[in-house]
């Protein structure tokens, strides 16, 4: 609490606002602080003030299934919180509630010097244990986007958000004179050649400009070959016939990961999923379209949104209804085991 500028003895938020000249200065209302209290996005710093000093807190209108994205003051990372009827933070470690409890995807990267690929582990944790960096660095390593920039863009229209996102992605990419990559692939072996080429690149190479050439064909990539490459590669890699994906049982227009993908592609199925991740990331950088419409919960994992019990309905509706029925039975469930 010392680093936040909060008077611990009086639990009162300090303010530097001057009193109106014609009115009697009023003491600010007492505010109870329960540490560690996450700060909602929109926190403004006073020039020259300490990093964690509270100045103004404004709540975002953006929520997902009752969960709100907030700033964690201990490390300035984004996390999800849920408030109760009185405005207090709900402890997500309490007993599981099928209407409120949630889990988020947590990535723990290892401290290695692998230039081509980061290694780590993936786990599902309760929201207070998952944190995401609130700043973004440019190709040169300088801070490009701060948490305050992300907070400010929340108030823009959807069209302005898209423009801001695309402009930010373009700044994350390297300039042509800083290096570019030439991708030579055979059309008849498009997927295998593309996978080998992309997975051989370093992490910095992913930010460079890619230029494509189909071996044996005349043509200079001025943007058209890149669009064709993204379309053909993603159309093939997302095809359920390949074995990596399968059609969703609840929505025939969507695909989900095939649990038996290791049987269909026993030697390299995980490499192909890494390849898909790189392609999707590069497509966002370059403003390209990709084929393949995944089920909703996969997008939640990618975006770091909370996953709740209700998401099970989009995966297996029959299983979801069975579990829901057991819960609705209440105390009568004991007769199932009599």
List keywords for this structure.
single chain; three-stranded antiparallel β-sheet; alpha+beta; 8 helices; 338 residues; five-stranded antiparallel β-sheet
Q: What does this entry show, briefly?
A:
The protein is built from eight helices and 14 strands.
**Total number of strands:** 14
Mean pLDDT: 76
Which class of secondary structure composition applies to the elements?
alpha+beta
Give the proportion of residues in helices: 25-40%
Strand/helix succession = EEEEEEEEEHHEHEHEEHHHEH
User: With helices defined by DSSP (H or I, 4 residues minimum), what is the helix count?
Assistant: 8
What overall form do the CA principal axes indicate?
globular
Provide the β-strand percentage band.
Answer: 15-25%
How far apart lie the N and C ends? 54 Å
- List the uncertain runs: 1-59
State the major sheet.
5 strands, antiparallel
Radius of gyration: 25 Å
Q: What does this protein structure show overall?
A:
Helix content is 26%, strand content 17%. It contains 8 helices and 14 strands. Strands 1, 2, 3, 4 and 7 form a 5-stranded antiparallel beta sheet that branches. It is globular, with a radius of gyration of 25 Å.
